[in-house]
Amino acid sequence: MGGYTYSELGAIFAMQGFAGISLFSVLLLMALGLAIIFGQMGVINMAHGEFMAVGAYTTYFISTITENYLPSLMPIYFFIAIAVSFLFAGLLGYLAEFSLIRHLYKRPLDTLLATWGLSLIMQQSFRSFFGAREVSPTLPDWLLGSYQPTEMIDIPINGMFVLGLTIIVTLVVFYLLFKSSWGLKVRATTQNRVMSGAVGINTQKVDRYTFALGCGIAGIAGAAFTTIASTGPTTGSLYIVDTFMVVVFGGAASLFGTIASAFSIAQAQSILEFFISGSMAKVYTLLALIIILMFKPEGLFASKVRR
Amino acid sequence: MKLKQHASKRTFMKNAACAVVLGLFTMASSQVTAEVNTTGLAVTDDTVTVGILHSLTGTMAISETGAQEAEKLAIKQINEMGGILGRKIKIIQEDGASDWPTFAEKSRKLLVKDKVAAVFGCWTSASRKAALPVFEKENGLLYYPTFYEGLEQSKNVIYTGQEATQQIIDGLNWVAKEKKAKTFYLIGSDYIWPRTSMKIARKHIENVLGGKVVGEEYKPLGNTQFGSVINKIRLKKPDVIYAAVVGGSNVAWFKQLKAAGITSKKQTLLTISVTEDEVLGIGGENLEGFYSIMKYFQSQDNPNNKAFVKAFKEMWGEDSVIGDVTQAAYLGPWLWKAAVEKAGSFDIDKVVAASEKGDIELTTAPEGYVKLHPNHHLWSKARVGRWNKDGQATVVYTSELIEPDPFPKGYQ
Question: Among positive and negative, which fits the CA dihedral A268, A269, A275, A279?
Fold first, then answer.
């Protein structure tokens, strides 16, 4: 790296570090909802990406309404959009669980097929409602541009925003699962469904809310990603592979595993990308992942749950 | 909208006059069907059937929607003028579903079962490559609208978009001259078109312009993370970023460039993959001041284009935008009409022979003027557009008419 001053290299190092952390927050936010559903209920939700797209489209819809009818709210509409995305995606998840998933709990392969079918239905509905073209909400000005702590360092504001949001969502999820009475019921149901039912926990209700929560978080993820990329009917399917990668690598039933997995995948990828080309970086990341999974098939953090 | 043909104006006028006069007596006998159709195509006494084959579903629907809308508009206008050889055009539309084998399968269906006289369709190079063997085997005729990497010329395809030299090389020449650019960073999506285009660009930069490529990078299709690449670009400080990122990735790419503080104030960026269609998704504010090299921009100020934009918006809604490929797709049916009338027949071989004479021209093309070269590509002008906040471009440079050269020497 001849010809560069130390301050230049330092600046690149700082920005590259942030690029890795930013990718980590994106992966984690994507995977959280899936990890909750997969980990706590054993349902593989192939429509997870589409619930993200629901959040993204909701944000787009709210942005359009705000722009046309309430322009004075533009600076803060994004927070409203995140909340509505959560509620709306959660509500859809609740309905999906009620009408589809709950009939298939004892048939894991069928839930795979059913949720995949659901994802196709949702993609086509997006296409019918919003058209085939990709859309982007108008972002408030404060979300655009970069923060410059020094002359040479540019930290993207949307990246910091997604990072902040990820931290908040993760903390809330941890609180709900490990500190609230609802979380106690969820964990009890996961460990022993029959016994939980016997001591008076309404396991069906627990399932429904868990699924809704997972989908709602997907909605938040979708809303957040509108600051990074655009939204089209098939956007969800772009994210689903990365999402599964994080969850499987982390160990299916562990939230800590999900965090560790998102962090290591993100850092590996962004560091490799800096030194070799983009496509090859992905290839090496996946290769490393496969090799590790060969020796640790349970993922980074093995599940200690008895089934 | 009127079309003119130069060289064979006389025969054309005669035919047209015949058609009009006969048409007054009876629709059916404008020209005897057995004469204009000797190979069993779907031509009746008052109709001729063509196919439209684009992706209406799947990831490519975003891009291909505009193309099929433009083709339908051209066909509607041709029908309003009385059709071709006294026959109204009927459309059979098939969905390629963004899936390349489906393109081949639907092509076969259109050619073998429906016996269409021409097909307007395909968008990505991958879909064209998949459909090409079918068109060659069944002797069909495809009008392909997208700018592409060149290195192809088939008897059965008319390429209405620009090939590599008409876009890539002219754009590089412009940026080298206007911006005094010496160092280039190439970035594209990882598939055939960006890779071939960048190969040509690199040869031109190194061998002709005497410049230097300081980085070359390909990201998987659909990739939305450009943080590391942007840092690399920052480290290399190229005079020009030369980009061919496509699809949804495009939006992420430009949003993240802006978020990283790389804007047109500090950095020249020239792209070969952004038209008005893409800007709709990216948002003009993220692109402001960057450049695209195309052959057509919606903002072009000429009477042909004004009429075209007006007609397009009347048919497809006030909010619709028109990109380079949409305009090129619009040319397809008109070029076919000119060739059929010149040949006096719908037979594929005769229409191809007429097209290869090299004198079919459209003086009323929205992009200005185009002429069909015997090598099945169009003579056209390259234009550099500077993007504005409202999602439209200001044309800052227009080239001379460039001869199409799908197999440029020294670039392979």
Answer: positive
Bridge partners for B216 per DSSP: B186
pTM: 0.81
Contact B61 A159 (CB under 8 A): no
Q: What is the ipTM of this complex?
A: 0.78
Q: How confident is the model at residue B7 (pLDDT cuts 50, 70, 90)?
A: very low
Domains and CATH numbers, chain B: 9-162+301-376 (3.40.50.2300), 164-294+385-402 (3.40.50.2300)
Find which of B183, B223, B251 to mutate to test the A interface (most A CBs within 10 Å of its CB): B251
Q: Do B228 and A22 touch (CB under 8 A)?
A: no
pLDDT in tens, B235-289: 889 999 999 998 778 888 998 898 888 899 989 999 999 999 888 878 888 899 9
Determine, for residues A282 and B220 on separate chains, whether the beta-carbon distance falls below 8 Å: yes
- pLDDT tens column, B318-349: 989 999 999 999 999 999 999 999 999 999 99
Q: Which residues of chain B are within 8 Å of residue A277 when distances are taken between CB atoms? A: 216-218
b (16+ CB within 10 A) / e for A84-120 = bbbebbbebbbebbeeebeebbeeeeebeebbeebbe
Query: If residue A166 lies in a helix (H) or strand (E), which one and from where to where?
Result: helix A157-178
**What are residue B183's DSSP bridge partners?**
B212
